[in-house]
């Protein structure tokens, strides 16, 4: 392989990145599978309408659907990067994934954890049970696919002290932005999207969103640590004395 081709390959693939991406091979297949899964989840919302379809905020009241939308944007930019071999779109995909992947891991942890405790905390009594395939599509597939994308098809996330502080700030800001959005929807609809919110007083809802921000930060750190365990970590060159 010529020196120019080697340089081009390295510009598109980090040394710790396990598989080539962007590429029209495995990377494109994974992103296409993800987009099909996400599209089927959105289709389920349209095919099974309920009062949320007609309420203020639509299904975007649910953290699950906000996360699904972010996952869709992440994989859409990833697939476009695969088809065009654009490093800019690849960087966009990786930038979106820094928020999308920890958010989806958070959603999976909260949903399945609360469902084990009491399904009524996450599913209102008027809502029919989700089909198993739909349940997995909403609450498992995005976290699983984004984690695969991170571990196999992405460069490592920044691990500096500044990057860690940014992760904490972004996670906390996202959690409280969602709280304000939920309260805005409540003023229009008169009900909360999740029964758990109704059961909690305002101080406890604040505590829940603060805890969610911390848990999302922990998810990001956990994903970063898992990446290092699977792919190794970058060795920083010592400064010359």
Question: Can you offer a commentary on this structure?
Answer:
By secondary structure, the protein is an all-alpha fold. It has one domain (19-229). Helix content is 72%, strand content 0%. It is built from ten helices and no strands. The chain has helices at 3-12, 26-47, 51-54, 63-84, 87-117, 132-139, 141-153, 161-189, 195-199, 202-231. Helix 2 runs antiparallel to helix 4 and helix 8 runs antiparallel to helix 10. The chain is globular, with a radius of gyration of 20 Å. InterPro entries: ADTRP_AIG1 (IPR006838). It comes from Glonium stellatum. It is a multi-pass membrane protein. The chain crosses the membrane at residues 21-40, 60-83, 95-114, 134-153, 165-182, 202-227. This is FAR-17a/AIG1-like protein.
- Average pLDDT score: 90
Order of helices and strands: HHHHHHHHHH
Low-pLDDT stretches are 1-10, 237-241
* Counted beta strands: 0
Q: Main beta sheet, described?
A: none
Question: Per the principal axes of the C-alpha atoms, what is the gross shape?
Answer: globular
Number of domains: 1
Transmembrane segments: 21-40, 60-83, 95-114, 134-153, 165-182, 202-227
Organism: Glonium stellatum
Subcellular location: Endomembrane system
Keywords: Membrane, Transmembrane, Transmembrane helix
């Amino acid at each position: 392989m010529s020196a120019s081709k080697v340089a081009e390959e390295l510009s598109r693939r980090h040394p710790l990145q396990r598989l080539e991406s962007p590429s029209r091979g495995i990377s494109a297949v994974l992103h296409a599978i993800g987009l099909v899964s996400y599209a089927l989840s959105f289709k389920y919302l349209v095919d099974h309408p309920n009062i949320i379809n007609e309420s203020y905020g639509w299904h975007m009241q649910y953290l699950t659907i906000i996360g699904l939308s972010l996952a869709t944007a992440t994989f859409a930019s990833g697939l476009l990067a695969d088809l065009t071999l654009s490093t800019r779109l690849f960087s966009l995909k990786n930038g979106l994934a820094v928020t999308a992947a920890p958010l989806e891991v958070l959603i999976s942890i909260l949903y399945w954890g609360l469902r084990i405790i009491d399904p009524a905390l996450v599913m209102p009594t008027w809502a029919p049970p989700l089909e198993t395939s739909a349940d997995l599509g909403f609450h498992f597939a995005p976290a699983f696919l984004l984690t695969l994308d991170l571990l196999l098809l992405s460069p490592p996330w920044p691990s500096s002290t500044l990057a860690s502080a940014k992760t904490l700030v972004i996670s906390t800001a996202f959690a409280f932005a969602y709280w304000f959005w939920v309260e805005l929807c409540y003023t229009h609809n008169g009900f909360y999207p999740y029964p758990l919110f109704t059961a909690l007083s305002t101080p406890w809802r604040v505590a829940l969103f603060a805890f969610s921000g911390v848990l999302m930060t922990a998810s990001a750190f956990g994903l970063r640590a898992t990446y290092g365990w699977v792919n190794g970590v970058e060795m920083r060159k010592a400064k010359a004395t």
